[in-house]
UniProtKB/TrEMBL annotation:
This is 4-hydroxybenzoate polyprenyltransferase, mitochondrial. Pathway: Cofactor biosynthesis; ubiquinone biosynthesis. Pfam families: UbiA. It catalyses: an all-trans-polyprenyl diphosphate + 4-hydroxybenzoate = a 4-hydroxy-3-(all-trans-polyprenyl)benzoate + diphosphate; all-trans-decaprenyl diphosphate + 4-hydroxybenzoate = 4-hydroxy-3-(all-trans-decaprenyl)benzoate + diphosphate; all-trans-nonaprenyl diphosphate + 4-hydroxybenzoate = 4-hydroxy-3-(all-trans-nonaprenyl)benzoate + diphosphate.
C-alpha cells in the first residue's frame, strides 16, 4: 500500500470505515498530496538566503508538481493493483477495478499527467531536472513492493521524500549533502511512522489477499518501532539544522514535532481503523509545524548576524 493506493494504504485517503463523507463547498488537498509536498517545502525553506522567506514561486511550482505526481502515482498504482482492488470493499469501486475504464485509457491519462509534470520539472535548473527524473524509477516500482517485501513503506518513504533533495537543488543549483541527506532520511523515517499507522487500517484485508506491510511485520511491537523511527527523524532534523546554521525557532519546531509524534504513538490504538486514520491525517500538522519553524528560523538568521556585526563596527 501507500499514499499512492492499494493494499495497506491508499493514495486518495478516504474517511474512516463506517463514516460518511460530507461534501464541502471548498475542496481541500488530500492528505497524500500534503505529505508529498511538505518535504519539498522544508527543503526550499532551508535553502533560502539567511534572513529571507522561501521563494513563493518555487513553492507554488513544487505544489503543482506534487499534485501532478501524486495523481500519476495514483494512476500507476491503480493499474498495478486492479486485481487486488477488486477483492477489497473500500477499493472495489475504483474505476479500473470496477471496469469503468480500460487499461489503455489509463495509459493515455497517465501520459497526460506525466507530460504536465515534465513541464513543471523543465522549469528548474539542469541539475534538478536530472535529479527529478531519477525519481521516476521509484514512482513506477513502488506499487510492486508490497508483493515482495514487508517494507513497502520504506520504499514509499524513499519516493515521497525525494522533494527534500529537489527543493534545495532548485534554489541553490545543486544539493548540499550535509543538509539534504539528513533531511531526506528524516523524511523517510517520518513516512515509516505515518504510513505504518495507516497500514493498520487494512491489515485484515491485506492478510486475506496476500499484501505485505510494516503493520503486518511489526504487529504488537508497532509502537516500539514507531518510537525508534521518530527518534531517528528528530536526529536527522537536528543534523540538517546544524549544518545550515538554523536558529532557535527551528529547534523549537523540531521539539514540537517530537511532542506531536510522541502523543500520536502513545494514544494510538492499532486495532481501531478510525483512530489510525485520525493519527495518520494529523501528520499534516507535523509537516506544517516544521515548515513554520524553518521559515521563522531562517528569518532570525539576519537578526543574529546583525548582532554579531554591530560590536565589530563600534570598535
Amino acid at each position: 500500500g501507500g499514499q499512492w493506493g492499494g493494499g495497506a494504504v491508499h493514495p486518495r485517503p478516504s474517511a474512516p470505515p463506517g463514516r460518511r463523507v460530507a461534501l464541502r463547498p471548498c475542496p481541500r488537498l488530500p492528505a497524500g498530496t500534503w505529505l508529498l509536498y511538505l518535504p519539498c517545502a522544508w527543503s526550499i525553506g532551508l535553502a533560502a538566503e539567511p534572513g529571507c522567506p522561501p521563494d513563493w514561486q518555487t513553492l507554488a511550482l513544487f505544489g503543482a508538481g506534487a499534485v501532478l505526481m501524486r495523481g500519476a502515482g495514483c494512476t500507476i498504482n491503480d493499474m498495478w493493483d486492479r486485481d487486488y482492488d477488486k477483492k477489497v470493499a473500500r477499493t472495489a469501486s475504483r474505476p479500473l477495478a470496477a471496469g469503468e475504464i480500460s487499461t489503455f485509457q489509463s495509459f493515455i491519462f497517465l501520459g497526460g499527467q506525466l507530460s504536465l509534470a515534465l513541464c513543471v520539472l523543465l522549469c528548474l535548473n539542469y541539475y534538478s531536472i536530472v535529479l527529478g527524473a531519477a525519481s521516476l524509477s521509484l514512482v513506477v516500482s513502488y506499487p510492486l513492493m508490497k508483493r515482495i517485501t514487508y517494507w513497502p513503506q520504506l520504499v514509499l518513504g524513499l519516493t515521497f521524500n525525494w522533494g527534500a533533495l529537489l527543493g534545495w537543488s532548485a534554489i541553490q543549483g545543486s544539493c548540499d549533502w550535509s543538509v539534504c541527506l539528513p533531511l531526506y532520511l528524516a523524511g523517510v523515517m517520518w513516512t515509516l511512522v505515518y504510513d505504518t499507522i495507516y497500514a493498520h487500517q487494512d491489515k485484515r484485508d491485506d492478510i486475506l489477499i496476500g499484501v505485505k506491510s510494516t503493520a503486518l511485520q511489526f504487529k504488537e511491537d508497532t509502537k516500539r518501532w514507531l518510537s525508534g523511527f521518530s527518534m531517528a527523524m528528530l536526529v536527522g532534523l537536528c543534523v540538517a539544522g546544524m549544518n545550515c546554521n538554523q536558529t532557535f525557532p527551528y529547534y523549537s519546531a523540531v521539539a514540537a514535532v517530537g511532542a506531536h509524534l510522541a502523543h500520536q504513538i502513545y494514544t494510538l490504538d492499532i486495532d481501531k481503523p478510525e483512530d489510525c486514520w485520525k493519527k495518520f491525517a494529523s501528520n499534516r500538522t507535523v509537516g506544517v509545524l516544521l515548515f513554520v519553524g524553518i521559515v521563522l528560523g531562517n528569518l532570525c538568521k539576519r537578526q543574529e548576524s546583525k548582532t554579531v556585526q554591530e560590536p565589530l563596527e563600534s570598535r
